[in-house]
Structures are given as C-alpha cells and as structure tokens.
Amino acid sequence: QLLKNQFTVDFKGAWPEGEPAPYALITQAFSLIEGTTKRIEKTSYLTSLLFTVISRSRQKDGREPDIDSVLQTVYLCINRLSPDYIGIELGIGESLLIKAISESTGRSAQVIKTELKKEGDLGLVAMNSKASQKTIFKPKPLTVPTVFARLKEIALTSGVQSQAKKTGIITKLLAACQTTIAGSTSSEAKFIIRSLEGKLRIGLAERTVIVALAHAAVLDEKERRNKNWSKERLSSKLEEATGILKQVYSEIPSYDLVIPALLKYGIWDLRAHCKLTPGIPLKPMLAKPTKAIGEVLDRFEGKKFTCEYKYDGERAQVHRLEDGTVAVFSRNSEDMSKKYPDLMESLPRCIKDNTKSFVFDAEAVAIDKNTGKLMPFQELSKRKRKDVKVEDIAVRVCLFAFDLLYLNGEPLLHKSLEERRALLREHFVPVPLEFDFAKSSDGDTTEQIQTFLEESVKDGCEGLMVKMLQSDESFYEPSRRSVNWLKLKKDYLAGVGDSLDLVVVGGYHGKGKRTAVYGAFLLACYDADNEEWQTICKIGTGFSDEALQEHAKTLKELEISALRGDIKAGGAKPDVWFEPKVVWEVLAADLSLSPIYTAAQGLVEQRGISLRFPRFIRVRDDKSADDATGPEQIAEMYQRQALAQSKGKKGKGDA
Ligand code: ATP
C-alpha cells in the first residue's frame, strides 16, 4: 500500500534531474490528502510524496539528497516557515488576500467576496478565479524553493508600505500558478492562499507528517540498499523508525537540524546525532487534571511521589549554552529573553561554579519585592511581552525551578525525577526574591496531601502538582500530557473542574449600553487531527465594561466576511465570525451534551459537548489557536464528571 505510487501524474518522469521539486507535486498530494478522512491513507499519500522528494533529489549516483527540497517540502506540509522558536509566521488577513486575488485575476473584490460567502474558503475562490481567467502564456512551473522563498519574504515584510509590498508579492505568486495540470484544474492557487491564511485545511496533523517522514526514510533505505524485507519486517522497521523520529523531534523540535541529520546519517543513527541541545527549546511536559485527592492516590498507590506547589505564573524554560549565552523560552517555545531582562541578569547569581551548560524547567512568578509574597498571574500579565527595560520594571519576578533537563553536556530526560531533582539542588543555589526551588513534600497519605494543598493555596498558589519520583515512570516526557504528572487545583475540589483554553470564533452584537461592543462570544476547542475548531459555548459573563472594550478592539480586526470551512459551527449562529486567533481561559459549572455545539462530537455520543455557565478568566497570550484545549480532553472531562456524579449518587464521593 505504502509503496504504491498514488499520484495521477508521473512527477518523477516530469521532474528533470538536478532541478528543484515542482510545487504541483505537493499540491497534488494535498488534494489527495484532503480527499480522505482515513488517517492511514493520509499517511500513505504523504509518505509517497516525501519518499519521492527524498529519492528523486538523491539522484542517480546516490549522493546526499538536496536537503532544501526535503526540508521545504516538510515545512510546506505543516505550513510553517521556521522552527517555533524563530517564529516566522504566516496568517495574512482576508482583505489583503482578496485584493491580491482581484489584482491577479482581474475579478472585482466584490465578486470575490460574494463567492467567498457562498464557498467559505478563499483558497477555493482563488482557484475558481484562476480557472475562469483567460491566459495567453502558460507560466513556468512553480517550484518548491520559489514558493517557500516567496512565503518567507511575505512573512518577513514589515514597516512602511508593507501591506502594498505583500499584496505585490502575492499577486505575482498567484499569476505564476498553473491553471490546469495534466488536463485537470490545478490547485496551486488554492493552497497558496490557504498557506497564506495560516491553515491548509487538509486534516494533516504534524504528528502524521513525522510518521510519514520516518516511513519515507525507511523506504528510501530499502530502495537504495536493495533490501528484500518481508511484509512483517518492513512493518516493524516502519514502527521502530517512527518511534525514533518522534523521540528525536520532541527533544529538538527543529526540522532545520533533524532533517539534514536524517538525510546524512539515516534514521537508525539519528538519536546519536540529534540530542536535546541548549538553545533549542523542547516542548514542555504537561499534566493531567485530577478532581480529587483520592484519584491521586489511586494513580500513585505504592509508588514514591512528590507534591510540589503549583505556582500561578508563566512557564519558563531556561537555557544556558556552553559559551555562557542564556535564553528563556515560554510554554510555546517563544523566546522571552526580551520580556525578562531582569531574569537574564540575575541568573548568574543562582548558578554554582560547577554548572556550565543546562536546561531547567521553572515557573516565573510575580512577587512583592518587599515581603517576597507570591502575587497572582494577573500581576505578571501587566508586564509587556517585548523590549522590557530593567529600569522600567514594576513587577518583580522570581523563578521557581522544578526540573533539570540537561546539565554540563548531558541530557537528563531519561533519569528519574528523584535524580534530576538532586542534581538541580546540587548545581543551583536559591537567591532571595530571584530564584528558588519549587516547594515540595514527598508524602503518601491523603492527609499529607490535603495539608500541603491548603498550605500552597494559603501561600498564593493554584494548588499542587503531584509527580512520580522514581523509575522510568518519572522520566521527563517532552510534549506529553502525562499521567505521571497530575495537577490538583483548589478549584477542582469545589467541583468546578479544570479550566479550558478556548478560541474566540464568533461575536454577538451587544444590547442596551453594550451596542458599541460585542455582548457575547462564541468559543471553540481545537481538534488537531482534523485541523478544525469545534464550537463549544456562548459566553457573556465575567467581563467588565473595560474588558469588553478591549476585546472589541482586538476582535474587530479579526472579523471575516464568511464562516471559514475549518470552523465546525453546528447550530451556532453568531452575528460575526472571527479568524481563530485569540485564546481565552474559561471556567464552567459543568459540561453537558448539546444538540447545537460540535465539540467532541462522536467521542462520547453523536451529540457534541458544551459548557454550562462559562465564565471568562483571562486572555492566554502564551497560547496560539492551535494550542487550545482539544476534544479528547473535553470528552475526558465529561466522562470524569459523569463518573463523579454516579459515585456521588452512591454516596461515595471523596472530595
Ligand atoms: P497545560 O499547560 O496543562 O495545557 P495550562 O497552561 O493552563 O495547561 P495548567 O493546567 O494550569 O497550565 O498547569 C500546568 C502548568 O503549571 C505548567 O505548564 C507550569 O506553567 C505550571 N506550574 C506551576 N508550578 C509547577 C510545578 N511545580 N511543576 C510543573 N508545572 C508547574
């Protein structure tokens, strides 16, 4: 199945040797991927694409393949232009794209808008506009490097006249798209527009790209070495390769580094060449919510575990390179060195002499500079995100370190938390008001946890993090929401449940004194597998008048003229739709099944799940729309709630 080349056009034949990969190769794969909902088929199409690019660009004499072709193909498949921590982003506004389509195809902006209302997909409108255009010359086929370079140029254009410059580049790029390829309508314009919008909408999650890349590397080896593996042997090789690539990528999430190494050393030696490296932020380990102390004990029964204060601040991954350079990264791998110049300056004071290079995981928390008391996240959020000057800083920040991931040239992810914690305490030293270790208590009874939880709340924390201490269950698992880390927030105990991070996708016009602003909003969760936002509730409480003004200002800019195809609205009918960008943290009384909303449809029941009595907590600037809570988490919360209710009915509720 995997080896079968499913392309209708023989690109290997049509792709002259030594030339860069044609962009049409990618768009044809995208169309095939878009046409199926089966993950295995999506993986298979993508494997064919990547295998073609790797083997073709390797050329006859078996030389190293053209790294750029492979790297840029992968970036175009995940619709990114750089690693997260470099942060070159697409996401061009609708009006600019309409202007470019209009200029490039000669159709009026009004006609394009009307068609967009009908189709809900500007990419499709661009493709139709191209198809209806009469062309005299057939343009030279677009190549992967050209498209990648233009997209990057657009993303990097800033300053005066930047809008006009961007429109100019997009117009030219659209003009260079083919109208037909091998007798059928070309989808180049469609995917260029979708890339520029920031979403491909073909239901391709990044983990599928990683699986396909691992499979393509194995198939390339099979072909080059002329291996005659049995079906079973091939299948176990594919699985092993996938495991290797997933692990490597979670430690160094940079295709810029992983792909050249993969092509040079092959998949089997990749781990030896790509290890956690200071300077490249890894995806943080995440925790699962728990609703009761009893649940913690059920999980950790008979195991050694520790409870740590769950500080109410912002995650900070702190790196120091061998040459002394330091950097702080956010939960989202964003470089925060410019937000925290004070931390950068104080860091040397908490490092012992025997500590050269390191990566530690910590929470940056606002504190009162006179009393050292912890302050809530709201205080920290007053700080600007960029270009903060030390002399202007009003809110003091202290770092509370809770894990050590790398020390003096050695990754520590596969050591137990007990060992990592010992090394952390050995190599760093607390400095009042600047740096400390997360307060912890290694207890094992309900009473001990209860006492420590109350203490943490009294000290201004959100609750506790309970973590496995020993054995491989306590390894650091980058990017995983692991059962080996449980969060126990004080709110849970009041029966409220964990908060959710949701994307604002629609607005309802206000009434009475709120006519100038939106009076309520439509929220959605994000399904990474299907690359779509699923509606979950309407929210209108928890906002002050000032907050509504602020939200109106931000969201007005994001209004779009039609519902995007990647927002699964269900029965929700807001007055306006927004580009999915803004993330809010929200609490709710409970969850219920809903005939209107689409969140987690099919996971618990055919109906979706919605939030009852949702309440706005805060804006989550540190999360992008793709980091919103997912449908699986929502289904899990719903099931947990149903379980607690049935236990409660039987009189067995434990908290
Ligand atoms: P998530 O990160 O789980 O998606 P979130 O960003 O809303 O959700 P929480 O669910 O509140 O965060 O809990 C996890 C976060 O708690 C961590 O990302 C970290 O920023 C913070 N935290 C505070 N203290 C600790 C600690 N001792 N150990 C680990 N994380 C801690």
TrEMBL record:
Domain annotation ATP-dependent DNA ligase family profile: ranges: 390-527
GO biological process, alphabetically ordered: cell division; DNA biosynthetic process; DNA recombination; DNA repair; Okazaki fragment processing involved in mitotic DNA replication
Compartments, record wording: Nucleus
Substrates-to-products reaction catalysed: ATP + (deoxyribonucleotide)n-3'-hydroxyl + 5'-phospho-(deoxyribonucleotide)m = (deoxyribonucleotide)n+m + AMP + diphosphate
GO molecular function terms listed in the Swiss-Prot or TrEMBL record: ATP binding; DNA binding; DNA ligase (ATP) activity
EC number(s) reported in the record: 6.5.1.1
UniProt keywords, alphabetically: ATP-binding, Cell cycle, Cell division, DNA damage, DNA recombination, DNA repair, DNA replication, Ligase, Nucleotide-binding, Nucleus
Enzyme class: ligase
Entry GO CC: mitochondrion; nucleus
Similarity-based family: Belongs to the ATP-dependent DNA ligase family.
Protein name as catalogued: DNA ligase
Provenance organism: Serendipita indica (strain DSM 11827)
Residues of the full protein shown: 167 to 821 of 826
